[in-house]
Amino acid sequence: MEEKAMGMNQSFWRASAVRSGYPELSEDVEADVVVAGGGISGVLAAYSLAEKGRSVALIEALKMGSGTTGGTTGKLTAQHGLIYHDLLERHGEQTARQYFEANQEGRQLIESLVRKHGIDCDFRKTDAYVISRSEDGIGKLKKEAEAYSRLGIPGRMTKSSPPGFESAAALVMEDQAEFHAMNFLHGILQELESMGVQLYEGTRYMEAEQNGDRLVVRTNQPYTVTCSQIVLATLFPVEDPESFYSNTMKPFTSHLTSFTGGDIEWGNGMYITEDSPTRTFRTSEAEDGRLVWIIGGETHPTGDGSSASGRYREIRTFAKEAFGLTDMQTYWSEHDLVTPDKRPYIGPLEKGGSSIYVMTGYGKWGLAASACAARVIAGLITGEDHPCKELFDPHRQLPEDTGNQNGGNDKDEGKKNESTTVSRIAAELEDGQAIRMERDGKPVGIYKDEDGSTHILDLSCTHLGCEVAWNDGDRTWDCPCHGSVFDSTGNVLAGPAKTPLKKLER
Ligand SMILES: Cc1cc2nc3c(=O)[nH]c(=O)nc-3n(C[C@H](O)[C@H](O)[C@H](O)COP(=O)(O)OP(=O)(O)OC[C@H]3O[C@@H](n4cnc5c(N)ncnc54)[C@H](O)[C@@H]3O)c2cc1C
Ligand code: FES
């Protein structure tokens, strides 16, 4: 990777966030509800529950916002690419309308929280556009526009293009919003503190066991949280009875970049292309007031072994050709989980269950949806109804073609099968590089760090054993099965895995 030209490998949002730190769990504590996961789902669920008078302990394995919420495009919208025509065709008018209303409710709730608590998070009202660069896409946009009109969604076909960008047609959804999700998260966390919510970082949910009518949550710390209910907002649920979530959700990764500079006068609008390769873009503001461009795309199945550095190069080329941007500041990738019917799973972990709940499967559109989801979860726990309970119920009827995930090891015959010794391979690696080889028929990863030290890892994911693949752009080991991400030396960056990759001797 040409480091200088690419900038820093970190999310613009995480790098520019104004954040507070929280302690690790350092004694046994109690709460009505334990929320695991300090992303937007967990934080807003904690808020909704605390509002309803429940005592809450929010435990985050790493730092608040270190999951997908910290690496989004920050679009708060019910426009999720082209989805309404498909929802109408497959599920009918009621479901399509409810999906729109759920996301509108979430967006409005976030706006009201920003205003109520005066959260400084660059919240801006703006329109959302799907654009087609070729004549071929116009038909698809028209069908979606018809769905808008049938469902009463405020929007229409337009010729309007982002400044400097050639497009054949666009579909606008009016009155949407964009924000700095990390600063919003930290604004809400401050409110949670004043509402008496217990906040812990560096505290990973490991397991829960029943103790009478209470649940005891064990963590990676030598302490427990005793509670009556648990909300798993850990992106992929870290409890998965009968592998329902493993079997029905797929992880997809996208890549984002931030740029400054350029001489284009940017107006209103955030954009995503309908045609391939997908490009998504919007603007924001740097601390010094300069315009920042957030540009991304290149979605692919997580851990498919494709070159992430090549994907960043593609985005860089696009930014230059479309907007004349050359000053790339940062680059990063994140993943999210997609369900068979593209609706999130919000509700009881197990059918009919009333003690453990999940918030997952947003399919890369969870910012507005999570706010609505938080209300659904709070309603389920406090016995109040919410109109979206059935829409998001994880145990709803799913389409036949759920695209079953293989919970075991997905063998890729095309992968390199090195037969030479670890020492010889390590000697040939450059600092910061990694390679896969096989030893005794098992996949082994060799990573040489910046200091020249070699790390040898068993590439079997510690979740269910799929083989992780090297991501050369972000220098992580990514699991194709359910989206666990490990750093270059094997530590868990994203679950469902809870323990590091096994280190091996030379
Ligand atoms: C590249 C990209 C761009 C996106 N852009 C948009 C967008 O513009 N608009 C939009 O609406 N959506 C967008 N999304 C989707 C959206 O970001 C996600 O749906 C949403 O952030 C999910 O939030 P979450 O809180 O559920 O998960 P996360 O933010 O991942 O939070 C989960 C948290 O749980 C923690 N955790 C994991 N395991 C444990 C454990 N065992 N114990 C305790 N804590 C644990 C993690 O460290 C993490 O902090 C995008 C997604 C991607 C991948
Ligand atoms: S096997 Fe499930 S995330 Fe790796």
Automatic annotation (TrEMBL):
Every Rieske domain range: 421-506
InterPro entries: FAD-dep_OxRdtase, FAD/NAD-bd_sf, Rieske_2Fe-2S, Rieske_2Fe-2S_sf, Rieske_Fe-S_prot_C
PANTHER family: RIESKE 2FE-2S IRON-SULFUR PROTEIN YHFW-RELATED (PTHR13847:SF274), SARCOSINE DEHYDROGENASE-RELATED (PTHR13847)
Domain of life: Bacteria
PROSITE patterns membership: RIESKE
SUPFAM superfamilies: FAD/NAD(P)-binding domain, ISP domain
Source organism of the structure: Bhargavaea beijingensis
Region (Disordered) location: 391-421
Biased composition (Basic and acidic residues): 409-418
Protein's UniProt name: FAD-dependent oxidoreductase
Keyword presence, Ubl conjugation: no
Keyword Iron: yes
Keywords per UniProt: 2Fe-2S, Disulfide bond, Iron, Iron-sulfur, Metal-binding
